[in-house]
Design a protein that fits this description.
Elements (H helix, E strand, L loop, with lengths): L7 E6 L5 E6 L5 H13 L12 H16 L3 E8 L2 E10 L7 E8 L8 H16 L4 E7 L3 H9 L3 E12 L2 E11 L1
Parallel strand pairs: 5-6
Antiparallel strand pairs: 1-2, 2-3, 3-4, 4-5, 6-8, 7-8
Bound molecules: coenzyme A.
Coenzyme A binds next to strand 5, helix 3, strand 6 and helix 4.
Length: 184
Amino acid sequence: MKFKEGKIIEKLELEDGREVVARFVKPSDARGLMLLTNSLVDENAFLTRMEHHSLAQEKRIVKEYLKDSKKGKAVSFVLESNKKIIGSIGGTCQDGAMSHVIDIGIVIHKGFRGVGLGKKSLKFLIDLIKKNTRAEILRLHVYGSNKHAISLYKRFGFREVGIVKKCYKLKGKYHSRLIMVKYL
Ligand SMILES: CC(C)(COP(=O)(O)OP(=O)(O)OC[C@H]1O[C@@H](n2cnc3c(N)ncnc32)[C@H](O)[C@@H]1OP(=O)(O)O)[C@@H](O)C(=O)NCCC(=O)NCCS
């Protein structure tokens, strides 16, 4: 599917009856995305960021994603349930000699994990990257202790290609940083 601001990618129904819509990001998502990011910061959920985002910061991020999406350089979509953004998934291609490498990220709200949305989202993301960008390599960074995420990425063919020991320091505790890639 080709990128269009706010366009619905798919409607999903969870086993417990909750409805979730996957759709491309649009400018008015900034507030919902800020709330999602800040909820992950509050739970120390394997992010690099440790401070809350402001609305102005989030607006700039969304603007950048939309600009890059229109140029075929990025993909960004959200998961929405009951008018709340509960997931944010996307990637942006690097510049110059690395313009065929896309760095990706995926976060899902605590209340919606473990019910298959990560798998669905990663599948959508890979399809959308193939259709909307010229990326040939997907790359990501993940905490070595983030077992669920690592298992999800391996399932989709990502391979661990590097490790930076003690790269993250969270509340005085060190964690390694894995670099994982998938060649399209
Ligand atoms: C990592 C994350 C995106 C996974 O999304 P999710 O919707 O919870 O994942 P799914 O329900 O689709 O499960 C996908 C796979 O992850 C692994 N997984 C998920 N929950 C798990 C659990 N409770 N126990 C063990 N493995 C688990 C499994 O491999 C699972 O596949 P399976 O159910 O077929 O065994 C999500 O947990 C999240 O946003 N976490 C916080 C932020 C984060 O860590 N982001 C990644 C940064 S690199």
